[in-house]
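Need the bound structure for magnesium ion, inputs here:
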Amino acid sequence: MSPKILLIEDEPSMRLGVSHTLSNAGYEMDAHENATSGLKSLRSNPFDLIITDLRLPDINGMDVLTMAKELQPDVGVIIITAHPQVDSAVSAIKQGAYDYISKPFSNDELLMVVSRFFRFKELKQENVRLKKTIQDKSMLDKFICESPAMKKVMDLVAAIADTDVPVRIHGESGTGKELVTNALFSLSARKNKPFLKINCAAIPENLMESELFGHERGAFTGAVQAQKGKFEVANGGTIFFDEIGDLPLSLQPKLLRVLEDQSVIRIGSANPIHVDVRMIFATGKDLKKMIADGTFREDLFYRINVVPVTLPPLRERSEDIPALISYFQSQYEHKYKKPEIKIPTHVYRCLLKYDYPGNVRELRNIVERAVLLSTGENIHEEALPAAIRESTCKALKAMEEEKLPLEEGIKTYEKQRIVKALVETNGRKIKAAEQLGISRKVLWKKMKDLDIDQTDYGC
Ligand SMILES: Nc1ncnc2c1ncn2[C@@H]1O[C@H](COP(=O)(O)OP(=O)(O)OP(=O)(O)O)[C@@H](O)[C@H]1O
Ligand SMILES: [Mg+2]
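Answer from helper R.:
Posting the output first, comments after.
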Protein backbone atom coordinates (compact mmCIF):
# COMPACT_ATOMS: atom_id res chain seq x y z
CA MET A 1 0.00 0.00 0.00
CA SER A 2 1.43 3.39 -0.94
CA PRO A 3 1.84 5.96 1.80
CA LYS A 4 -1.02 8.47 1.87
CA ILE A 5 -0.40 12.21 1.86
CA LEU A 6 -2.94 14.98 2.43
CA LEU A 7 -1.98 18.23 0.73
CA ILE A 8 -3.55 21.59 1.64
CA GLU A 9 -2.37 24.39 -0.62
CA ASP A 10 -4.42 27.26 -1.98
CA GLU A 11 -2.09 28.31 -4.80
CA PRO A 12 -3.27 26.19 -7.78
CA SER A 13 0.10 25.87 -9.56
CA MET A 14 1.85 24.91 -6.33
CA ARG A 15 -0.90 22.41 -5.45
CA LEU A 16 -0.71 20.79 -8.88
CA GLY A 17 3.09 20.74 -8.94
CA VAL A 18 3.47 19.15 -5.49
CA SER A 19 0.70 16.62 -6.20
CA HIS A 20 2.22 15.69 -9.51
CA THR A 21 5.77 15.25 -8.17
CA LEU A 22 4.68 13.16 -5.21
CA SER A 23 2.22 10.93 -7.04
CA ASN A 24 4.92 10.26 -9.64
CA ALA A 25 7.14 9.17 -6.78
CA GLY A 26 4.52 6.61 -5.72
CA TYR A 27 2.67 8.43 -2.96
CA GLU A 28 -1.12 8.44 -2.87
CA MET A 29 -2.20 12.10 -2.93
CA ASP A 30 -5.34 13.82 -1.72
CA ALA A 31 -5.09 17.55 -2.54
CA HIS A 32 -7.32 20.34 -1.18
CA GLU A 33 -7.39 24.07 -1.78
CA ASN A 34 -8.46 25.02 1.73
CA ALA A 35 -8.13 23.73 5.28
CA THR A 36 -11.83 23.13 5.85
CA SER A 37 -12.09 20.61 3.07
CA GLY A 38 -8.66 19.08 3.94
CA LEU A 39 -9.65 18.55 7.57
CA LYS A 40 -12.96 17.06 6.46
CA SER A 41 -11.05 14.45 4.51
CA LEU A 42 -8.78 13.86 7.51
CA ARG A 43 -11.82 13.09 9.65
CA SER A 44 -12.76 10.12 7.52
CA ASN A 45 -9.45 8.84 6.08
CA PRO A 46 -6.19 7.82 7.71
CA PHE A 47 -3.10 9.66 6.40
CA ASP A 48 0.60 9.15 6.99
CA LEU A 49 1.57 12.73 6.26
CA ILE A 50 0.01 16.18 5.83
CA ILE A 51 1.72 18.86 3.80
CA THR A 52 0.08 22.18 4.46
CA ASP A 53 0.74 25.77 3.52
CA LEU A 54 1.17 28.03 6.52
CA ARG A 55 -0.93 30.79 5.05
CA LEU A 56 -4.34 29.58 3.91
CA PRO A 57 -7.52 31.51 3.06
CA ASP A 58 -9.71 29.99 5.77
CA ILE A 59 -7.71 28.51 8.67
CA ASN A 60 -4.11 29.26 9.56
CA GLY A 61 -1.61 26.40 8.98
CA MET A 62 -0.66 26.36 12.69
CA ASP A 63 -4.27 25.66 13.64
CA VAL A 64 -4.41 22.97 10.96
CA LEU A 65 -1.44 21.38 12.72
CA THR A 66 -3.18 21.42 16.11
CA MET A 67 -6.44 20.05 14.75
CA ALA A 68 -4.69 17.40 12.67
CA LYS A 69 -2.76 16.13 15.69
CA GLU A 70 -6.01 15.91 17.63
CA LEU A 71 -7.68 13.92 14.87
CA GLN A 72 -4.71 11.65 14.08
CA PRO A 73 -1.95 11.94 16.69
CA ASP A 74 0.52 9.84 14.67
CA VAL A 75 0.22 11.81 11.45
CA GLY A 76 3.33 13.71 10.33
CA VAL A 77 3.02 17.35 9.31
CA ILE A 78 5.28 19.28 6.96
CA ILE A 79 4.69 23.03 6.68
CA ILE A 80 5.17 24.97 3.46
CA THR A 81 6.29 28.52 4.17
CA ALA A 82 7.39 31.60 2.33
CA HIS A 83 10.76 32.96 3.47
CA PRO A 84 9.53 35.74 5.77
CA GLN A 85 7.55 33.19 7.73
CA VAL A 86 10.48 31.02 8.75
CA ASP A 87 10.05 32.00 12.41
CA SER A 88 6.52 30.64 12.45
CA ALA A 89 7.75 27.46 10.80
CA VAL A 90 10.22 26.98 13.59
CA SER A 91 7.51 27.38 16.18
CA ALA A 92 5.39 24.90 14.18
CA ILE A 93 8.17 22.36 14.65
CA LYS A 94 8.16 23.10 18.35
CA GLN A 95 4.45 22.30 18.34
CA GLY A 96 4.92 18.92 16.73
CA ALA A 97 5.36 19.48 12.98
CA TYR A 98 8.00 17.19 11.53
CA ASP A 99 9.71 19.79 9.31
CA TYR A 100 9.14 22.73 7.04
CA ILE A 101 10.08 23.54 3.47
CA SER A 102 10.38 27.11 2.25
CA LYS A 103 9.18 28.42 -1.09
CA PRO A 104 10.46 28.33 -3.71
CA PHE A 105 11.67 24.74 -3.60
CA SER A 106 12.74 22.23 -6.22
CA ASN A 107 11.15 18.83 -6.81
CA ASP A 108 14.27 17.21 -5.38
CA GLU A 109 14.03 19.22 -2.19
CA LEU A 110 10.39 18.27 -1.82
CA LEU A 111 11.10 14.59 -2.40
CA MET A 112 13.97 14.65 0.01
CA VAL A 113 12.03 16.13 2.89
CA VAL A 114 9.12 13.73 2.30
CA SER A 115 11.31 10.64 2.03
CA ARG A 116 13.21 11.74 5.11
CA PHE A 117 9.93 11.81 7.00
CA PHE A 118 9.07 8.27 5.92
CA ARG A 119 12.51 7.04 6.87
CA PHE A 120 12.13 8.66 10.27
CA LYS A 121 8.73 7.01 10.65
CA GLU A 122 10.20 3.65 9.70
CA LEU A 123 12.97 3.97 12.28
CA LYS A 124 10.43 4.97 14.91
CA GLN A 125 8.25 1.98 14.07
CA GLU A 126 11.26 -0.36 13.99
CA ASN A 127 12.22 0.90 17.40
CA VAL A 128 8.73 0.40 18.82
CA ARG A 129 8.52 -3.04 17.22
CA LEU A 130 11.84 -4.20 18.60
CA LYS A 131 10.97 -3.01 22.07
CA LYS A 132 7.59 -4.68 21.89
CA THR A 133 9.01 -8.03 20.75
CA ILE A 134 11.44 -7.90 23.59
CA GLN A 135 8.80 -7.08 26.18
CA ASP A 136 6.42 -9.68 24.77
CA LYS A 137 9.01 -12.34 25.10
CA SER A 138 9.93 -11.36 28.67
CA MET A 139 13.36 -12.26 27.51
CA LEU A 140 15.17 -14.12 30.20
CA ASP A 141 12.45 -16.70 30.82
CA LYS A 142 12.75 -17.72 27.21
CA PHE A 143 16.49 -17.99 27.18
CA ILE A 144 17.09 -21.68 27.64
CA CYS A 145 20.36 -22.29 29.42
CA GLU A 146 20.71 -25.62 31.16
CA SER A 147 24.32 -26.30 30.31
CA PRO A 148 27.10 -24.99 32.57
CA ALA A 149 28.58 -23.21 29.53
CA MET A 150 25.41 -21.22 28.84
CA LYS A 151 24.80 -20.55 32.53
CA LYS A 152 28.19 -18.88 32.60
CA VAL A 153 27.27 -16.79 29.56
CA MET A 154 24.03 -15.66 31.18
CA ASP A 155 25.80 -14.72 34.43
CA LEU A 156 28.16 -12.57 32.41
CA VAL A 157 25.28 -11.00 30.46
CA ALA A 158 23.44 -10.15 33.68
CA ALA A 159 26.60 -8.62 35.16
CA ILE A 160 27.40 -6.34 32.21
CA ALA A 161 23.91 -5.48 30.93
CA ASP A 162 23.54 -2.36 33.00
CA THR A 163 26.95 -0.93 32.15
CA ASP A 164 27.86 1.04 29.05
CA VAL A 165 30.84 -1.06 28.01
CA PRO A 166 30.97 -2.24 24.41
CA VAL A 167 30.23 -5.94 24.12
CA ARG A 168 31.37 -8.29 21.39
CA ILE A 169 29.31 -11.44 20.98
CA HIS A 170 30.94 -14.20 19.05
CA GLY A 171 29.38 -17.47 17.93
CA GLU A 172 28.52 -19.63 14.96
CA SER A 173 25.33 -18.89 13.05
CA GLY A 174 22.19 -19.70 15.04
CA THR A 175 23.84 -19.85 18.47
CA GLY A 176 21.71 -17.01 19.86
CA LYS A 177 23.80 -13.84 19.36
CA GLU A 178 20.76 -11.72 18.65
CA LEU A 179 18.90 -13.20 21.59
CA VAL A 180 21.79 -12.31 23.91
CA THR A 181 21.80 -8.79 22.47
CA ASN A 182 18.09 -8.44 23.21
CA ALA A 183 18.70 -9.67 26.75
CA LEU A 184 21.53 -7.16 27.21
CA PHE A 185 19.26 -4.39 26.02
CA SER A 186 16.22 -5.32 28.04
CA LEU A 187 18.25 -5.62 31.24
CA SER A 188 19.94 -2.27 30.75
CA ALA A 189 18.94 1.15 32.05
CA ARG A 190 18.57 2.16 28.40
CA LYS A 191 15.64 -0.18 27.81
CA ASN A 192 13.20 2.67 27.26
CA LYS A 193 15.55 4.48 24.88
CA PRO A 194 16.07 3.87 21.16
CA PHE A 195 17.40 0.48 20.09
CA LEU A 196 18.63 0.20 16.51
CA LYS A 197 20.02 -2.81 14.71
CA ILE A 198 22.43 -2.44 11.81
CA ASN A 199 23.41 -5.40 9.71
CA CYS A 200 26.84 -4.42 8.39
CA ALA A 201 26.66 -7.10 5.71
CA ALA A 202 23.38 -5.80 4.30
CA ILE A 203 24.13 -2.11 3.67
CA PRO A 204 26.17 -1.25 0.56
CA GLU A 205 29.52 0.37 1.33
CA ASN A 206 28.65 3.63 -0.47
CA LEU A 207 25.53 4.18 1.65
CA MET A 208 26.94 3.01 4.94
CA GLU A 209 28.81 6.17 5.91
CA SER A 210 25.84 8.47 5.48
CA GLU A 211 23.58 5.87 7.12
CA LEU A 212 25.74 5.80 10.25
CA PHE A 213 27.08 9.33 10.50
CA GLY A 214 24.55 11.41 8.56
CA HIS A 215 25.34 14.22 6.14
CA GLU A 216 24.99 17.94 5.69
CA ARG A 217 23.04 19.57 2.91
CA GLY A 218 25.16 19.61 -0.27
CA ALA A 219 27.70 17.12 1.10
CA PHE A 220 27.40 15.10 -2.12
CA THR A 221 25.27 15.05 -5.24
CA GLY A 222 21.71 14.36 -4.17
CA ALA A 223 22.22 15.54 -0.57
CA VAL A 224 19.59 18.25 -0.86
CA GLN A 225 18.77 18.16 2.82
CA ALA A 226 20.86 17.50 5.89
CA GLN A 227 20.22 14.11 7.42
CA LYS A 228 20.93 12.56 10.81
CA GLY A 229 22.79 9.27 10.89
CA LYS A 230 21.83 6.30 13.04
CA PHE A 231 24.17 7.37 15.84
CA GLU A 232 22.27 10.62 16.24
CA VAL A 233 18.90 8.88 15.91
CA ALA A 234 19.90 6.35 18.60
CA ASN A 235 21.33 8.98 20.92
CA GLY A 236 20.82 7.95 24.54
CA GLY A 237 20.10 4.37 23.50
CA THR A 238 21.77 1.30 22.05
CA ILE A 239 22.99 0.24 18.61
CA PHE A 240 23.52 -3.40 17.72
CA PHE A 241 26.03 -3.90 14.92
CA ASP A 242 25.38 -7.35 13.49
CA GLU A 243 28.11 -8.97 11.36
CA ILE A 244 30.66 -6.36 12.43
CA GLY A 245 33.31 -8.32 10.51
CA ASP A 246 31.66 -7.01 7.33
CA LEU A 247 32.09 -3.33 8.20
CA PRO A 248 34.10 -1.88 5.29
CA LEU A 249 37.71 -1.16 6.15
CA SER A 250 37.24 2.47 5.09
CA LEU A 251 34.65 3.02 7.84
CA GLN A 252 36.47 1.23 10.62
CA PRO A 253 38.54 4.27 11.73
CA LYS A 254 35.35 6.34 11.84
CA LEU A 255 33.64 3.84 14.12
CA LEU A 256 36.76 3.75 16.26
CA ARG A 257 36.53 7.52 16.67
CA VAL A 258 32.95 7.28 17.93
CA LEU A 259 34.05 4.66 20.46
CA GLU A 260 36.91 6.85 21.60
CA ASP A 261 35.37 10.34 21.55
CA GLN A 262 31.64 9.65 21.69
CA SER A 263 31.16 12.01 18.81
CA VAL A 264 30.21 11.81 15.14
CA ILE A 265 30.97 14.13 12.27
CA ARG A 266 28.36 14.26 9.51
CA ILE A 267 29.64 13.97 5.94
CA GLY A 268 30.27 17.49 4.70
CA SER A 269 30.78 18.94 8.16
CA ALA A 270 33.76 19.62 10.38
CA ASN A 271 31.82 19.87 13.63
CA PRO A 272 31.72 16.88 15.92
CA ILE A 273 28.31 16.13 17.47
CA HIS A 274 28.30 14.45 20.86
CA VAL A 275 26.46 11.12 20.98
CA ASP A 276 25.83 8.79 23.87
CA VAL A 277 25.25 5.32 22.44
CA ARG A 278 25.89 1.90 23.92
CA MET A 279 27.27 -0.45 21.30
CA ILE A 280 26.90 -4.19 20.99
CA PHE A 281 28.69 -6.07 18.23
CA ALA A 282 28.11 -9.57 16.90
CA THR A 283 30.11 -11.66 14.55
CA GLY A 284 30.45 -15.22 13.40
CA LYS A 285 33.79 -14.42 11.76
CA ASP A 286 37.21 -14.92 13.26
CA LEU A 287 38.26 -11.28 13.72
CA LYS A 288 41.77 -12.23 14.85
CA LYS A 289 42.27 -13.99 11.53
CA MET A 290 40.83 -10.98 9.72
CA ILE A 291 43.37 -8.77 11.53
CA ALA A 292 46.14 -11.06 10.31
CA ASP A 293 44.72 -10.84 6.77
CA GLY A 294 44.53 -7.05 6.98
CA THR A 295 40.73 -6.86 6.62
CA PHE A 296 39.95 -5.79 10.19
CA ARG A 297 41.74 -3.11 12.18
CA GLU A 298 43.47 -4.26 15.30
CA ASP A 299 42.83 -0.98 17.18
CA LEU A 300 39.10 -1.29 16.52
CA PHE A 301 39.15 -4.93 17.60
CA TYR A 302 40.55 -4.01 21.01
CA ARG A 303 37.98 -1.23 21.40
CA ILE A 304 34.99 -3.47 20.70
CA ASN A 305 36.42 -6.42 22.56
CA VAL A 306 36.17 -4.87 26.02
CA VAL A 307 33.81 -7.64 27.10
CA PRO A 308 33.85 -10.65 24.79
CA VAL A 309 30.91 -13.05 25.09
CA THR A 310 31.38 -16.38 23.36
CA LEU A 311 28.42 -18.58 22.58
CA PRO A 312 29.51 -22.19 22.21
CA PRO A 313 28.03 -24.23 19.36
CA LEU A 314 25.06 -26.38 20.39
CA ARG A 315 26.99 -29.62 19.81
CA GLU A 316 29.31 -28.56 22.64
CA ARG A 317 26.48 -28.03 25.12
CA SER A 318 24.19 -31.00 24.60
CA GLU A 319 22.65 -30.46 28.06
CA ASP A 320 20.63 -27.62 26.47
CA ILE A 321 19.08 -29.85 23.78
CA PRO A 322 16.27 -31.54 25.81
CA ALA A 323 15.11 -28.20 27.25
CA LEU A 324 15.23 -26.55 23.82
CA ILE A 325 13.25 -29.43 22.28
CA SER A 326 10.46 -29.16 24.82
CA TYR A 327 10.47 -25.35 24.67
CA PHE A 328 10.12 -25.26 20.88
CA GLN A 329 7.73 -28.24 20.89
CA SER A 330 5.22 -26.50 23.14
CA GLN A 331 5.70 -23.22 21.29
CA TYR A 332 4.83 -24.83 17.93
CA GLU A 333 2.06 -27.07 19.31
CA HIS A 334 0.46 -23.87 20.48
CA LYS A 335 1.12 -22.03 17.22
CA TYR A 336 -0.22 -24.81 14.98
CA LYS A 337 -2.99 -25.79 17.40
CA LYS A 338 -1.75 -29.36 17.73
CA PRO A 339 -2.51 -31.60 20.70
CA GLU A 340 0.37 -32.51 23.00
CA ILE A 341 2.61 -34.64 20.83
CA LYS A 342 4.74 -37.59 21.90
CA ILE A 343 8.23 -38.05 20.54
CA PRO A 344 9.02 -41.77 20.23
CA THR A 345 12.25 -42.82 21.92
CA HIS A 346 14.18 -43.53 18.71
CA VAL A 347 13.24 -40.11 17.25
CA TYR A 348 14.16 -38.40 20.52
CA ARG A 349 17.53 -40.15 20.56
CA CYS A 350 18.22 -38.93 17.01
CA LEU A 351 17.43 -35.39 18.11
CA LEU A 352 19.76 -35.66 21.07
CA LYS A 353 22.62 -37.13 19.08
CA TYR A 354 22.54 -34.96 15.96
CA ASP A 355 25.36 -32.40 15.75
CA TYR A 356 23.35 -29.32 14.58
CA PRO A 357 25.70 -27.42 12.28
CA GLY A 358 23.02 -24.68 12.18
CA ASN A 359 22.84 -24.67 15.99
CA VAL A 360 19.70 -23.59 17.89
CA ARG A 361 18.08 -22.16 14.75
CA GLU A 362 18.38 -25.57 13.04
CA LEU A 363 16.97 -27.38 16.07
CA ARG A 364 14.09 -24.91 16.18
CA ASN A 365 13.33 -25.48 12.48
CA ILE A 366 13.52 -29.26 12.87
CA VAL A 367 11.08 -29.24 15.78
CA GLU A 368 8.74 -26.85 13.95
CA ARG A 369 8.66 -29.07 10.89
CA ALA A 370 8.19 -32.23 12.96
CA VAL A 371 5.30 -30.72 14.89
CA LEU A 372 3.73 -29.43 11.72
CA LEU A 373 4.00 -32.80 9.93
CA SER A 374 2.93 -34.86 12.91
CA THR A 375 -0.24 -36.85 12.45
CA GLY A 376 -2.19 -37.99 15.46
CA GLU A 377 -0.16 -37.88 18.60
CA ASN A 378 3.23 -38.92 17.36
CA ILE A 379 6.19 -37.35 15.67
CA HIS A 380 7.38 -39.80 13.03
CA GLU A 381 10.96 -40.29 12.01
CA GLU A 382 9.96 -39.34 8.45
CA ALA A 383 9.15 -35.86 9.73
CA LEU A 384 12.84 -35.31 10.47
CA PRO A 385 14.92 -33.80 7.66
CA ALA A 386 16.91 -36.21 5.46
CA ALA A 387 20.20 -34.84 6.84
CA ILE A 388 19.44 -36.18 10.31
CA ARG A 389 17.72 -39.40 9.15
CA GLU A 390 20.55 -40.37 6.82
CA SER A 391 23.30 -39.70 9.33
CA THR A 392 22.35 -39.81 13.00
CA CYS A 393 19.26 -42.03 12.83
CA LYS A 394 21.00 -44.57 10.58
CA ALA A 395 24.10 -44.68 12.75
CA LEU A 396 22.02 -45.10 15.91
CA LYS A 397 20.00 -47.92 14.35
CA ALA A 398 23.15 -49.72 13.26
CA MET A 399 24.56 -49.42 16.76
CA GLU A 400 21.34 -50.67 18.33
CA GLU A 401 21.16 -53.62 15.94
CA GLU A 402 24.66 -54.60 16.87
CA LYS A 403 23.59 -54.75 20.48
CA LEU A 404 20.55 -57.01 19.76
CA PRO A 405 20.72 -60.73 20.61
CA LEU A 406 21.64 -62.70 17.45
CA GLU A 407 18.16 -64.11 16.85
CA GLU A 408 16.52 -60.70 16.99
CA GLY A 409 19.26 -59.10 14.93
CA ILE A 410 18.63 -61.65 12.18
CA LYS A 411 14.89 -60.99 12.32
CA THR A 412 15.41 -57.23 12.01
CA TYR A 413 17.73 -57.76 9.07
CA GLU A 414 15.28 -60.14 7.36
CA LYS A 415 12.43 -57.73 7.85
CA GLN A 416 14.43 -54.86 6.36
CA ARG A 417 15.42 -56.90 3.28
CA ILE A 418 11.89 -58.14 2.67
CA VAL A 419 10.31 -54.70 3.07
CA LYS A 420 12.93 -53.24 0.70
CA ALA A 421 12.18 -55.91 -1.94
CA LEU A 422 8.43 -55.32 -1.61
CA VAL A 423 8.88 -51.57 -1.96
CA GLU A 424 11.04 -52.04 -5.06
CA THR A 425 8.58 -54.40 -6.70
CA ASN A 426 5.55 -52.30 -5.82
CA GLY A 427 4.28 -54.99 -3.46
CA ARG A 428 4.31 -57.75 -6.12
CA LYS A 429 5.12 -60.82 -4.04
CA ILE A 430 6.21 -63.13 -6.88
CA LYS A 431 8.76 -60.58 -8.06
CA ALA A 432 9.88 -59.80 -4.51
CA ALA A 433 10.37 -63.51 -3.74
CA GLU A 434 12.37 -63.88 -6.96
CA GLN A 435 14.54 -60.92 -6.03
CA LEU A 436 15.16 -62.40 -2.58
CA GLY A 437 15.89 -65.87 -3.99
CA ILE A 438 13.14 -67.57 -1.97
CA SER A 439 9.82 -69.19 -2.88
CA ARG A 440 6.54 -67.33 -2.73
CA LYS A 441 5.38 -69.63 0.09
CA VAL A 442 8.47 -68.91 2.18
CA LEU A 443 8.02 -65.20 1.59
CA TRP A 444 4.41 -65.36 2.64
CA LYS A 445 5.32 -67.29 5.85
CA LYS A 446 8.13 -64.90 6.73
CA MET A 447 5.83 -61.92 6.22
CA LYS A 448 3.39 -63.49 8.66
CA ASP A 449 6.09 -64.35 11.24
CA LEU A 450 7.76 -60.97 10.98
CA ASP A 451 4.48 -59.10 11.06
CA ILE A 452 4.99 -57.38 7.72
CA ASP A 453 1.91 -55.85 6.15
CA GLN A 454 1.01 -53.21 3.59
CA THR A 455 1.64 -50.37 6.02
CA ASP A 456 5.34 -51.37 6.02
CA TYR A 457 5.87 -51.24 2.26
CA GLY A 458 3.16 -48.73 1.48
CA CYS A 459 1.46 -50.52 -1.48
N1 LIG B 1 19.27 -20.33 24.37
C1 LIG B 1 18.20 -20.17 23.58
N2 LIG B 1 16.96 -20.33 24.07
C2 LIG B 1 15.88 -20.19 23.28
N3 LIG B 1 15.94 -19.87 21.98
C3 LIG B 1 17.15 -19.68 21.43
C4 LIG B 1 18.35 -19.81 22.20
N4 LIG B 1 19.42 -19.57 21.41
C5 LIG B 1 18.92 -19.28 20.18
N5 LIG B 1 17.56 -19.34 20.20
C6 LIG B 1 16.67 -19.13 19.04
O1 LIG B 1 17.37 -19.60 17.89
C7 LIG B 1 17.16 -18.74 16.77
C8 LIG B 1 18.49 -18.19 16.28
O2 LIG B 1 19.06 -17.31 17.26
P1 LIG B 1 19.74 -15.92 16.87
O3 LIG B 1 19.03 -15.27 15.75
O4 LIG B 1 19.90 -15.14 18.13
O5 LIG B 1 21.14 -16.49 16.37
P2 LIG B 1 22.41 -15.70 15.78
O6 LIG B 1 23.59 -16.20 16.54
O7 LIG B 1 22.15 -14.24 15.81
O8 LIG B 1 22.48 -16.26 14.31
P3 LIG B 1 23.13 -15.59 12.97
O9 LIG B 1 24.61 -15.59 13.15
O10 LIG B 1 22.71 -16.53 11.88
O11 LIG B 1 22.54 -14.22 12.84
C9 LIG B 1 16.21 -17.67 17.25
O12 LIG B 1 14.90 -18.06 16.95
C10 LIG B 1 16.41 -17.65 18.76
O13 LIG B 1 15.28 -17.18 19.41
MG1 LIG C 1 21.95 -12.87 14.18
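Comments: The chain has a mean pLDDT of 88. The CA atoms of residues 3 and 27 lie 5 Å apart.
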